[in-house]
Amino acid sequence: MAGQVFAYIVHKEGVADDTAFEMVAAAKRIDPDAAITAIVAGTGIDLNVVCNEIASSYQEVWKIDNEALSYPDAEVIRTLLVRILPEGGLIIIPHDTFGMDLAPGLSIKLDAAYLPDAVDIDGVDDNRLKAVRQEYSGQVSTHVVCDISGGAVITVQPGAFKAEKTKWPGGQVVDKTAQALEVGFPATGRRFIEVIEAEVGDVDITKSEILVSVGRGIEDEDNLEIVYDLARAMGGDVACSRPVVDAKWLEKSRQVGTSGKTVKPKVYMALGISGSFQHQGGIKGAPFMVAINKNPKAPIFQAADVGVVADILDFVPELTNKINGSRSRLET
Amino acid sequence: MEILVCIKTAPDTSENEININRDGTDIERDDLVYSVNEWDNYAVEEAIRIRDRVGGSVTVVTVGDEEAEEVVRREMAMGADKGVLLSDEVFNSSDGRGIASIIKAEIQKGKYDLILTGAQADDGAGQVGGMLAAMLNRPYASLVTCLEVIDDKKIKVGREIEGGNLEMIEINLPCVLSIQTGINEPRYVGIRGIRRTASVEIPVYGAEDLGLSSESVGESGSKVKRLDYFVPDPGEGAEMLEGSADEIIEKLIELLKAREGIK
Ligand SMILES: Cc1cc2nc3c(=O)[nH]c(=O)nc-3n(C[C@H](O)[C@H](O)[C@H](O)COP(=O)(O)OP(=O)(O)OC[C@H]3O[C@@H](n4cnc5c(N)ncnc54)[C@H](O)[C@@H]3O)c2cc1C
Description:
- Chain A has 2 domains: about 5-180, 3-Layer(aba) Sandwich (Rossmann fold), CATH 3.40.50.620; about 205-330, TPP-binding domain (Rossmann fold, 3-Layer(aba) Sandwich), CATH 3.40.50.1220.
- Chain A starts with a strand and ends with a helix.
- Chain A has about 325 residues and is α/β, with parallel strands linked by helices.
- Chain A has helices at about 20-30, 45-55, 75-85, 95-110, 175-180, 225-235, 240-245, 275-280, 300-305, 310-330; strands at about 5-10, 10, 15, 35-40, 60-65, 90-95, 115-120, 120-125, 130-135, 140-145, 150-155, 170-175, 190-195, 210-215, 235-240, 265-270, 290-295, 305-310.
- In chain B, a hairpin with a 4-residue loop joins strand 7 and strand 8 (about 155-160).
- In chain B, about 30% of the residues lie in helices and about 25% in strands.
- In chain B, the strands form 2 sheets. Chain B has a 9-stranded mixed beta sheet, sandwiched between helices. A two-stranded antiparallel sheet of chain B has the order 2-3.
- Chain B is an alpha/beta fold and about 260 residues long.
- In chain B, helix 3 (about 95-105) packs across helix 4.
- Chains A and B meet through helix 3, helix 4, strand 7, strand 9 and strand 10 of A and helix 3, helix 4, strand 7, strand 8 and strand 9 of B.
- Strand 10 (about 140-145) of chain A pairs antiparallel with strand 12 (about 225-230) of chain B, so a sheet runs across the interface.
- Flavin-adenine dinucleotide (FAD) sits at the interface of chains A and B.
């Protein structure tokens, strides 16, 4: 049996993030009978809309409403959570850029265990929560046990748990604003200024039907030529994983993933990409995915439809030649 | 500005395939190439650039065994002024909180304006920076991809959030930041540079030097423990194309055409 289970809801413009429903599934993996309480901070109509939306998936929804919460600051939210969470509680948070800002410090302030980036949960036995995590960019998995006798902060990998939208009769919305702000709005050493939107590039890969995407396996900037050649032969556009952008070999606007673009092509070629969850998080619409990687155990092969174990530096030019060859035969 | 950067030794995953040993207790370590964790290298580069702009010094600190000295020397060759190794048998199997407590003890011996960590390391947890900040009661910002020093009281940073958007914030010093890849282009460290730092004395501190009880760190102080390593069931997985290169390519072209993957 676990203590009370909470979930921190990330939302934007009046819509709850997908993880809001994935955390319901995660909570049930902790304890199928657990009463799950959602915590939502924000302000105004947007906040109310989100609370109502998720009230059918959670038994109870705690809302914290204040104008200064219109943009969520993890430092502020951390203090508010410490004020309202009961001792020994478990709180689930998405392992996204907000969760990464909030969760580690929260575990210290609550004096609770911290279990980061869980991809599966195997229940609780005698205050020991068993879970699955990934290491080395998803190349291997581990079972971990976490002592939850003093509570726990658990972040869950977005997309790892299958969203559950089963309806509860009458999930209640409880206003916790007064309790959270009783001693005043938290003072922090950090001030939000603005969000600067990512730059738009020359090609909008979010509209492409065919993407030839390249990862660190390309090894050198000069080798990108073979990727452009293949994209041209296929009639597609070139995209990439994060390290290719970090190395400044391609523009940021071509990066696929959680901190890049979300793409929905019909066909996605993953060349020398290992398949981290942050990369796969940017691929939607279940495209036909072909992975070419020299490591037969690369996690990308679990997500792809078709796989080839090969060195892209040899394989890609040959593939391009054959495509061009078969086309010129057709045309003559 | 006095800057401390927390660094970790990690296998270079772009160079290595990670395999699990026979009984699943660890990964196969014999043939691994180790280096400094990718994210930490960006953090050290950023620290050096800040120092070169506004003055001060850069110290790198790591928790590890004797071999961890290698990454300290590497980052000193890059330009860090000082290096410290925190090493003790009782530190083994510490969880994130344990590592943060060990580093915290070292931090409290000095006076740092800015503490940097990598956004995450090989275990993908991304926890030490945020924990340190909370333990020290200092403001924290994670996933920083740009940084500007305003004065000796505050800096302006950009956190890279979903979609590659930048969340700009002002943060008071002293503070803790976790650094995301891409913030800069880390300089190359040549063999000559490494040779230069090869004979530098690196101070090593253990639990006693740091005033840490052995119960608060290591296995006994850990609330989170790793039980084993395993490779998940690949599930459906991809249809793997096999045969000669020509056969594979022919089949692949056929499949792509069927899916309108070749226009
Ligand atoms: C907060 C956060 C956000 C992130 N956002 C993103 C994001 O938006 N997008 C993103 O992509 N990543 C993102 N990342 C980084 C992510 O975690 C991985 O580090 C990254 O996706 C790895 O890119 P990769 O697969 O190209 O490189 P690696 O993981 O290094 O993989 C390279 C692959 O190439 C293979 N290979 C090497 N040489 C060859 C060859 N000659 N032929 C064939 N195969 C070869 C290797 O076997 C390996 O599988 C993010 C990380 C964090 C912490």
